[in-house]
Each structure stands twice: as C-alpha cells, then as structure tokens.
Records
---
Amino acid sequence: MTDLVLRNGRIVRPDSSLVADVYLREGRIAAIGSNLDVPAGTDQLDASECWVGPAFVDLHAHLREPGFEHAETIESGANAAAIGGYGAVVAMPNTEPSLDSVAVVAYVLDRGATTRIDVAVAGAITMARAGERLAPMAELAALGVRLFTDDGTGVQDAALMRRALEYARPLGVRLAQHCEDAWLAAGGSMNEGAVSSRLGLTGRPALAEELMVLRDLELARATSGRLHLLHLSTARSLALVAQARREGVDVTFEVAPHHFTLDETACATYDPIMKVHPPLRTTHDVEALRTAMRRGEVDAVATDHAPHAPEMKDMAFDEAPAGMLGLEHAASLTFEALGGAEGDPQRFFSLLSRTPARIAQLRASDVRPRHGAHGGDVVEGESATLVVFDPSARYVVDRERLASRSTNTPYHGRTLSGRARATIVNGRVVAFDGELA
Amino acid sequence: MNTIRGANLLSLEHLSRTSLVEILDTAESFVEVHQRSVKKVPALKGRVVASLFFEESTRTRLSFETAAKRLSADVLSLAVASSSVKKGESLRDTIATIDALGIDAVVMRHQSSGAAMQVSRYVPHVRVINAGDGQHQHPTQGLLDVFTIRQLLAERHGTTGAESGAELFDGLKVLIVGDVRHSRVARSDVDAYVALGAAVRLCAPATLLPVDVANWPVEVAESFDDALEWADVVGLLRLQRERGSGSFVPSLAEFTFTHGLTVERAKRLRPDTIVTHPGPMNRGVEIDSRVADLPVAVMTRQVTNGVPIRMAVLFLTVAGNPGGER
C-alpha cells in the first residue's frame, strides 16, 4: 500500500479545525502537522481549501442485491457511495430474499467485503419483513448486525413492535422504523394535501407518519428500548421526537436529502422519479427540516438510496415503485442546506459521518467483526478512512454518468456545489473527483 | 393556456374563458353535421386518431370515435387491457408501439391520474387528448356539460349559444353533488363553470369532499335540501363504487338518504332547474329512476352533445394552427 499525504487541508475535528498536512501510512493517520516531511515516493494530494474529515457513513442504502441486480448490486451501490464520499453504508434488508437469515446476511457481508468501502447490514425485524414473527436477531447480531428494520414498510402491529424492542434491548442493537401507518397511507402515492387533490392522486397524509412516530416513541419509552426513526419528513415528527428526547427516550433519527431539498409540488408533472415513501412534503416541512439541521437538532442525514430500473419509472405515477437515488449527491445537498462554504463544517461531518457511525456502531470503540472504524476524530492513530471535501466544487448532475446502475435521480440537470474530491478507505483512495479510483 | 389550437388537451385547469368559448363555438358549428344525411365533413381527412383505452368506457370511446369519423379521420381503436402493466409492458412501451403505426393524435383513457400528461412527454409530436385519467380530469366531459347548459339556456332566451358567448353563465348557480373527492368529472366541471363565470357549490358527505376543499373556488353547501332550492343547475356525480368509495360512506342506502336525488327531494327543484349526470347512472343510489326520467334531467342531450364537443376538440388540437384562422 502506497502512503499518502494530504497537503494543507482544513482538518475538521469534532470541536475544532486546523489547517495542516495529514500523513496516512498503513491504513492509519501517522502524523498531522505543517509541512510534514514524508518519505520519498509518498503520494501527495493537494487538499488546500478542502475540508478533511472522516469519510461519510450512510445509515440507509438499498443495494438491491440479492434479488434486484438489474437495478443495483452491492458493488455498483458501493461504487456510487465511494463517489459520494462514503466509507461505509448500511445495506437495507428489503432484498429478495430479505436479510432475515444468517446465510443471506453473510452473503451480503461477503460481497460487501470485496467492494471499495465497508458494507454493513441492517437485518429485518420480522421474517420476510412480513410483520408477523421476529427474525433471528441474536444470530444476526453475532454476525455484526447492529440495526434492524423492516424498512420499505413499518412494523404495523404495535404488540409485535413492543416485543421486538424488548427482545432487542439486551442484544445491544437498535431498531429502525419506517414510520408510516399502512392504513392511513393506503393507496397513496404522494403527500396528501392541496397538490395531491388537484392532481387526483391519493395522498399519504403526514398523519400516517406522525402517528407511528408517536406510537413508537411511547413503545420505546415503555420498554426502555433503543429506537432509530428513518427518514422523518414532517415538522411535527421532529417536534414529537424532540419532546420525547427531553423526557429521556433513547431515540435517534435521520432525515433524507430529498425531504430537505424537494417539496410536493415536484410531483405536479407526474414524473414517477418524484415518487418516494414517505412522500415529498410541503415547503413548511422542508424549511423545518433545514432549520433543524442548521440548529444541530438532527442526528444524521441518510440517503434512502433506492435504485429502480428505468422501466419501473416508465409507468403511471400511482403504479410506479417509490424511491430515488441518493448516494452520489447527498453530501452536496447537505452542504448546501447547511449554508455552503459559510456553513459549519463540524455540523456537516456530524450529520454525515460521526453521528451515523455512532448509531450504526461503526466507530473504533465499537466491537464489531468485519468492519473498519468510521466517524472518528482526525488525529494520529485513527483509521485513515477519510474524505477530502471541496467546498468550492460545482458540478451538473448527469443521470447518464452515475456509478449506480439506475438513473432515477431527481436532481438531473441541477448544478450542485461542494463535492467529495477524494474518498479514502483504510489509506487507499477509492474515488477521486467524481470518478472511481 | 389561451387556446387548445395545435396543443394537447390534458386538463381544463388554467383554460381561459375565451378559449372555452372558442371550443364551445366550434362545437356549435359541428352540431348541424348531425342533422345531415351524410354525417361527415372532411376536416381531418387523412389524419389518424388512435383511441387508447386502458380503462374500458364504451360510451366515451364510441363518442370520440364517432366524432373522429365525422371529421373523416382514420380511427385506430385499441382496447388495451388494464393489466398490460401486470404483463410487464411499461406505459412508454405501449405508446411507442401505437406511435410506430403512424398517428396524429391519441385519445387516451387511463385509470391512473396523470397518465395522459406522461404520454404527452413520451410522444411530443402527437396530440394527446385526455379522455379521463384516474381521479384527475375528464376535460371533454366538463366541456360537454357546459356546452349542454349553454345550449339549453340560449334556447330559453331565444338566442344561440354562439351569440350568447359566455354571458349566460354570469351568476349561474351550479350545485355539484356527490363523490367530488374521487371525481375527475367534478374537477373538470368546476374548472369550466368557474372560468365561465358561474357560482359553484359542492355538496357531499364530509368524507367525499376533496381534502383541500377550502382552496377550491367554490362554496360548500351544508344542507342538500337548501342547496337544491338555490341551484339553477344540479350536477350529479356517479358514486365511484369501483374506486372503493364504499368505505367513505357507511352504505349506498345511507348515501341515498343523505345525498340521493330522491323523488321527495326533487320537489324542491324549481321548474327550470337543469339536472345533469355524466353517466353511467347508479339509478336508485345518487338519483331515483323516476327523477332521471323527468324532462329536467338532460342526460340524453349530454350524450348527444358529446360528439360535437369531441369533434371540436379533435379539430382544434389536430388541425388548429396556433393563432391561425379556422
């Protein structure tokens, strides 16, 4: 492995930052300082004007393998992640078969180990995500699974969710919920409101999400369980969580880039690319999410990267599957939402790396077979899994030039600012300037 | 949008009073074709119109095809099973197949809202006429409804529709009753009536009003009985049983009890009040059979007028040069 020195970057530590060189050797940060002397033959990367921090960690990526390899594979999804600045992703369990058994989870972990980045797994809470009986959480936890979810849908049965929270607690794992009440959201394909009514589309009301948020907060309170709420999308959901937290409920949550950058009016042309669950909400909700992010009230940005093959988005809006791509552009969108180059780099790395790494238990201090250390400080001895992020970069999203196998990005043609210049995993550059390395 | 000439007709939303009157006047000029022994004009000779019905609707399809034939267009009639998606064919592939046969316009009915707009993006060189999409819009139904009302009012005033323009709609009191929430007809009707200057009230069980009714340019009538006395026009809607409206009201009988136009309620109608229904009627549910057969109920006239309206729409969209003289 060739050694690497990052020259003159702004090193973003949890509570401070400094401009210095970072010398990476044998997969670790070997030295930090000004004008470091490094051995001849060491690769140099000019990081001036760039932010250097821990590589991003995505809590929520649908990699589609096994089962839907025409839309994405573990490898193509990992490549998209590497280009987006990610050193680790958590693969969601709604594959075919679902990630509810040792054999299938081991398969995903093994495939993941051959990619450029770390691929962790979220196991299913219930067998086949059918919401009927619990998956073997202890067996999967022994393989290193730390998050469990039936994402795609939420666990509808309150008694089963209560039992799952109770069962999971001594295992040291966290349950992640897709919050939408299936009956309130039934048949809906966009946010319920004036826009859906005008378009004649059945709505998924905010209430469908908020009611399950409220239910699960109370279940977590009653069971002392650990809860993570996926892709919260409404102002009211955030308020409910904030209240429960003040009262001591152990809950974390994420927001997805599309929910803080796009609103329900994006559905007005019936472009199925804009269909996602939970749906794009009102401008009021978008603003509430952005404000909460800037104030440090949000734990994590997670992509909900959901590739779908092109033919799946050539259907009528209400017949098309929900979901959009996220991994390649999430960091730019987060950067912009936090105020761009004027924004707070600590908060940026907290949202994209440090807090999600803590939630996914992917930090150096977490005992975890198979996976490297993520979301750490940038100091000597830490793992050399870093991202060099260029706040001055500007680029145009082109769906024909994505690492993902699918093209369903809602940002095609849009100019974004801020971009991962280099993604470094264990000292190795895996992506550089939007290309795989 | 200021005209449908040379454009698509996907919705009546944003259509101006002037452009609506243009369509109505064009339709009126086609009415007399119906009375001829040779019921044909050569306006679309050599043009090809495809009718593409993903959701079966015999009456709308027949009406469009009759209109196209009276304009001398060639008609490709394709009944696409609504299960084509389940068979794996995407909307884009279906329309590409039809387009490959060489068509100038497609008249499209689909169970999904927005499908016509999506198709218009796939084949931008083809004129797309929405013959009903999901719960969104049914523009030609809205047009034939206002055309029928204008014609009837003009007859009463001893004038013609074309001479009256839109003035007979000024202050006209229109009550739309029933399953507004799931109704594409209601959306098109409200757009057309409001643009033409009518005052519109909606009356329905609370669960069948649109979720955003406060934003609609209408009033909500609390009492059906009072609203019947208020109205100049009563537009009944079909209770959309096939769209699961059943769970929005306790039972059909209860709907009839609260919002059915029963014989008893019909006594509240003034002698000159006009009752419309887009068909097919659920006799005994939203309208009593005996009321449906009263002279004030003009369903047959609506069906007859569907042909000249659809002739006008086909003519203007396919042959109408934007801004050009007819």
---
Amino acid sequence: MKETTVCILDDEPIVGDRLKPELEDDGYSVEVFTDSASALNRLDETCFDVFITDLKMEGVDGMGFLEKVKEKCPDSEVIVITGYGTLESAREALIKGAYDFITKPFRIGEIRAAVKKAKKRAKRNIA
Amino acid sequence: MQPVHLLKKFLGHRGREQIPFAELFKRFQDILDKNNAAMELIADMDGKMGGDFVFDRKYLTDSVHKLKQLVLANAYDLNFITNNQFLAIYDTIEKLAKELEIELSGQMVIRETRRIYHLNEIDEGMEDTVGYKAYNLSRMVSLPKIDFPEGFVAAIGCFRDYLAYNNLFEKIASLIETFKKEEKSVESVSTAIGLMILGGDIPPNVRREILNAANKICKGKVEGCYFSVRSSGVGEDGELSFAGLHDSFLNVRFGELLSAFKKVLASLYNPASLSYRLKMNLFQMEMAMPVLYQAMVPSRTAGVLYTLDPNNPDRPECILSGNWGLGRVVVEGQAAVDTFYVSRNTPHAITQQKIGSKKWMLAPLKTGQARKVPGKLRDKPCLSPLEARTIVEAGLILERFFKKPLDVEWSLDEGGRLWILQARPLKIQPAKRVQRPELSEVLKRHRVLLEERGMIAYRGIGAGPARLVTENDDLSQFPAGSVLVSRYAPPRLAEIIPRASAIITDIGTTTGHMATVAREFRVPTIVGTEIATQVLEPDQLVTVDAERNIIYEGRIEELLHHQLLEESAFEVTREFQVLRRILKKIAPLYLTDPNAPNFTPRGCRTFHDIMRFIHEKAFQALLQTGSNPRAFLKRGGKRLKSQIPIDLILIDLGGGISQKAAQQTHVSPDQITSVPMQEIWAGLSSPGTWNMDPIPVDFKGMMSSVTRTRSSEVMGNSLPGVNLGVLGADYVNLSLPLGYHFTVVEAAVGPKPENNYISFRFAGGVTDITRRSRRASLLKNILEKAGFKVNVNGDMVNARAIDLTDRQIRQNLHLIGRLIGFTRQLDVLLKNDADIERYLAKFINQAVPPEKE
C-alpha cells in the first residue's frame, strides 16, 4: 500500500520539529513547512493525504490555506491546530471542511490519534 | 519612630477603619482565589516540562503574561487592605517580569554573584553562571551512590573580570565583527584574540580565589596535588553542542593552575568554536567561559566506559576499556588496553574480554609520565568482574539520568574505590537505530499489560523489575534500576526517584510534586493509571513506554535502544529550554519563613515568593484590624459555642458557616461548613484530646497578658490577642495564641491534590528553652510520621504538607486538631521531662482517626 503522506504547516518551527519524527515513527511520510507560501507551492505539485495547519500565520493564514486545500485536493483531510482562545475560528474551520481541530498546547498522542482517524477517512474518500 | 511615620501610621490606621470589614475579607478571598489560579498556571507550565506536550513560544508568552496580571491584581488588593504599606512589591514584580521578558526573547539573564563555586555549592538554575560541564557534574554529584573527585569552577565572573582587567571586551568584540563580516579569516581572528588573552594578567581577586579553592582541595599540600582543568561552556546545551570544541588539560600542577585558566579561556575563540558560532548563529548570545577544576584521582586502573557499543548498539552490552595507571592512554588510544564486553542487564556479567599486553602506562602520580608496566601485571586483567560490574552500574545510573548512551571516564584508586571523572553523550550513527516499523514487529511479540491508562508525566522508556511501594515501606531498600509502582504519588517518594528506571502510579497528576521531581531526575513516569498496582506483579519484568503510554511485559531491548539513540531529545528544543529557564524565576518557593529578615518585597526571588508574601501580609493585616474578641464580633465574627473551653471567634469568608447561622452571634460546631475546619474540630474535640480538668491558673488572664507579649515577640506583631478562625468552604486559617504558646494552621482542601496543603506553625511555652526545644523535636517526630516536611528552629516548629489526596488531608487535619489539644495539655500539665515522654506516648497510642474515603 502507498505510504500515507502528511503535510505540517505552522510558523512556529517547534511544531514541525516535534511532530515529524513522531509521525514518521508511525509510518507516515511527512513534510514540514513554516510559511504558507512554500506550502502552497508544494500544494501545486501534490496532494497530501492529511494536512495539519495552524490558523494564525503571516501571509495566507490557516483558513485561506484550508480553502485552497479543499479546492485542490477534495479527498484530503485537514486538521487545524489553534492557539488558546481562538475557538470561534476553529468552528469556522470546521464549517469550511476541516476534519478536526486541536488546541495548543497539545499532547503528541492527540495529534497521532487525529491523524490516524483522518488517514482512514482520506483513504475512504479516494476509494 | 519619626513623627512623620507616627502620623502616617495613625492616618493609615484611620484610613483602614473606614473600609468595611466585609470588603476587606472579600479582597482577601480574591487574593486566595488568584493565588490558586496562579498556582494552577504554574503547575500547568511545569507539567509541560514532561515532554508529552507540544507548546510554542506563544504559550510561554501568554502564560507569563497571565501570571503577571494575577500577581499584579493581588499586589493591588494587598495595598488596598494595608493602606499602601507594600508599594515596593510593584517594583519587584516589574523587575521580575522584565527578566522573564528577556528570557522569552531568548537572551540570557546572568545573575552572577560569586567568582568561585565548589561543585556541591552549585544550585539549580546556575548553568549560565558555571557553564554546562560544571553544571551537569554538579547535578550528577547529587545522584546517589556515585563518587566524583572534588572540584570547583571559576565562574563567569572570573571570565568577565579577566576581560575587564585586561581591557579586552571591546578589542575582542571588534575583531569578531570583522570575522562576522568576513573581512578577516577565522584563523587570523582566532590567533589575534588568543594572543591577547594569553598575554593578559589575571586580576588579583581571581588569582587569589582560584588558588585558595585549589589549596583547600589539596588540604594545604600543593606538592603532588594535581588537577584537571577544563572548559565549561555557557549558552545552549553547551555540553552537547560544543563538545570537544574547547580545550581541557589533565595533570596540571598547582603552579600551573593560573596559566591553564588562560589557555582554556583562549580556546573559547579557537577557529572551530568561532566557526561553529557563526554557523549556528550564536553570536547574539554572550560568549563566556567558566573554567572547571577537578582534583586528579591517583588511580590504580582507569579507563572509559561506553554504555552501548557504537558499532552494535542493538546488543545489550557495554564496552569497558582500561589500563593500569591514569586513563589518558585509554582515552587517546595510545597503547594496548584491556577491553571487556559487559551485559547491560543485572548482574552485569562479562560476556567477552580481550586482555591486551599492556607494556606502557601513565604513572598515577607526580609526573604523569609514561612508564613500563611491571612484567607480572602486563597480561593480567586490570579489572576484576566485580569492579567491572560496579563501573557498569554507575554508568547506567548516569545513562538513565541523561537519557543517552554515554562515554564515561572512570578511575579506580589504590583502595579500589570508583570515581567518575566525566560523562558525555556517546555519538552513535543514526543508521544504527532500530526503525519504528521493525520495532512494531518486535513489540507485537510482547504482551501489553496496560495501554493508554493515565497520563505521561515525563516522556521516555524505562525497564526493570516492578517494585510495589506502599506507605510504610522502608524506602532505603528500593533497588536501583527497578520500576517504581505505587498507589499514590506522595512527595516522600522523591528520595527514591533518582534510583528508579521508571515510575507508575494508580493515582496522581502530572502537575503534582512527585511528577515535578520525576521530571527533575528525568525518570519516565506515567501517573493516574488507576489499576497498575493491581495489574503488575511484584518483581515482574516490565518495559514502560512513557512515549506511547504502554506498559509491556518483559524487557524490550529494542525499545530501550530506540529511545536511547533518538537523535535529539525534546529537552534540547529552544522552547523547552526557555520554559526551564523561566520556571526557575516563577515556580520555586524560597520565602518559607514569615519571620525571616528577607521576608520583604525585595527578598522575593520568584513569582511564587511574591504570591506567598502577599498572602501572608494580607492575612496579618486582617488580623491586626482587631485586638480583642469584641472588635471581631462587632464586625460579623461569631463565637463558637462548645464543651471545649476555648474562646474561638470565627469569621466566614463565604461558605465556611451554615447559612442558617447568618444572623446568630454564636454558632455551634455542627454549623461549621468549612471542610478543613470540620476536620480540625473533629480532631480537637475527639475524646481524650482536650483535658477537661480544671485549669490551675487563670486561663483568661494568661491569654490577655502573657500571650500577647509573647506572640508579638515571635510573630512580629502579626497575631491577634484572640483565637481566630477565618473560614472558607475549602479554606481555614486558624490563629490560636493559646496559653503561653501560639499555633497557626492554614489549610486548603479541594478536588485537586496539587492544590491541597496544610501549614502548621507552633512555638512558645512556659518552660525554659531546652525543654521547649525538646518538645519541638517531639512535635517534629509526630508530624514527620504523618508526611509533613518539618523545620525546627529553636522552639519554633514550621511544618508543611502538600499534594495530599482527600483522604490524606482529612487524616492530617484531624491529627492537627488533636495536636492542638495535645500541646495545650503539655502547657498546662507539664511538670517535668518525663511527662513529655508520657504524653507523647499517649498521643501516639491513641486510636488512629477513622479513615474516610
């Protein structure tokens, strides 16, 4: 079976730095971006199975990124991570098609579980 | 007192009178609430040190901001209550907030004080003052059962003095600028700075202090006293990232200690170090170089231990190499040595050994020159199996602490005693690491005992025989390397944590005190599993995966290696380091004694100190609003009606007294709704606790005259002349100037154990100081048995219990209640020393209070 691909976008490098090895240990192929412009460039080339994105960012923010992903890769699933106190925008993200949202700071296990569920659904979308 | 002050005091007093009593208490309640909120925030931040959370800079900035707001609000309330008596606290808050801001921005705040620190004088959080090598050594020094040679560090202050004395700051800075702009090559800049440093003079104070410290270690005999002199870098995790970049010197004679200091300083600017800083963009940090001095051990045998075989890291073996004499031949690989492969598992048997034909050795003392090994020793192993085992055991304790395979330099002296000289991470090629997909195949073959139960308090993997520890166990018998399994997470377990390979509890939180200690000693920990003590069998071999939250049966070497060979632990991320630094200015409590001279706004070193200070001063101010029962009764206080002859006035902060009693001036014990007060009262009024015999002296008279004088002596005027209980639904503060002594109890009871505490203070008595001190130590015995941390100072007893489950706190409050009655008996009935013993025995033998689950 083809490896499941995961894209992480967060302008705080710590998020990708810590999640990448964890998700790789789970058998995913992971790419990390810290600015939305380069993530969007990559999006032009390929659809990842699962996207993890922060909401608040310079340039195109997480909401904008989510819209672009849904437009270009309708079968992919998006997990939104948000800082404390931005639950309102999390709700908006869900309406716009995000699969799940997780508030920062989060336990690594939460993300692993969310990605596992999102992967299953993404695979179903394709099938 | 100056007339102005008198006037101020008078006006201040009048000013306070005008504030309604209810308003004062509302403010006090606010302070308590905000303190609780702040403590929760601190616990939350501390919990993030466990590595299971991903947090970013924003989390850190937001948390510090919230804390500052809470503390500022409390400072405002305190000044409201006290009519602006503590305006200086604002300066302290701002100063601390400023320091935190700098830490958050990634710069260093260095608070240097002394020039020289002995290794055992280095406190938590001093890595920037003494450098990482010295700091790590000082942390290892605290590990049980391992000996290190004596040593001291010429701290960052020495470095700065040296540069200043020789006028080098600006010269070096401008040379480095030319290097950064690539106007000059790294070699030419390095050489130029090196020459300037080597040509400088050591300032007289630094010279004197280094030689004094060295002289002390040599015990005055400088002839034949040798040192190793090493760099101890500052910034980042120096030990990890700058490894090998700076110079070290072995076998340095006393007369060369000062020139070695200069040589080590110069190595801060060697080409490798400068290039590394440029590459890692580390020039925005200050460059500084503390210097570590350690006594050389006159060794019979010395060498190196690799806790893993770098070429075969998946084998559960250590490599031990050694030779006769000093270890340098082994380190530098200059001559034939003995090599032993030793099992990582107990009892650490030697699985293979290659005995070299050891022709050369370094003479242990004086010259340190190479000399021929005597014929009969050449082909003889330089270590016995028992010695090999001892070295491996020590190495594995260190490995558990650093969570990395280590390269350990060791030495056995003539008497066969083991000394650890250095420990540093062992480089192992990442390709050698077992990958997760392979690993999951391995893991499938092992039975899962527990999965996703409880919370990870500290990430990591640990394995060993499960050791169930119960409340009454003798903790000194806990075998090193075992997995500590306990129903609760009481603070007393702290003493064995460094020896545990992992910790599992049924009940407990990631923010509790024990979890904090586990993080400090880096022991993988899972708390709150609910059923671990039932599922795990005594001495069953288990592997605790506190990364995925799974406990397996058996010892899974592959999993242990997988973690050991992890490229970079979460501890080295910038966010984690910043959190660790800021917590040091937030979480510790240094101001524990309200009577200490540093119990002032200026004496506060952390946010916790400030909170403690505000709480105490606010409470004292409330007590001073009345000096007799009537003053409190008039303003809403209620007199407690009971069989016990104690004139107690109760003040309700809200929820402490039944609503039905709202209009009454007297309340009965069953109308108390404050949970902690109920427990204390149950203890105080339990049969046999309160002596009902007629009191042989005028009790009231004693209280009004003697007590007040006495309490103002010992409490700095903070106690009222009345027995006063301030109650909340889950809070109590009881001040009892009973008889000739005083007792202060404060307690909070809530659903979260980490917010629960009891503090108990007691002093005074009618007898001479010897007997009072004796009684204090008897109280200490009783309280320590119950799990309190107790300080005795003369006749003053300060006890504190934290992190208590609901059952424990109720039991302890009951005990405190009995203790109050007991101490009063001592006062009234005490006739001679024998009586003290008798009453103590009586107290201890009285039935244990009924357990309430």
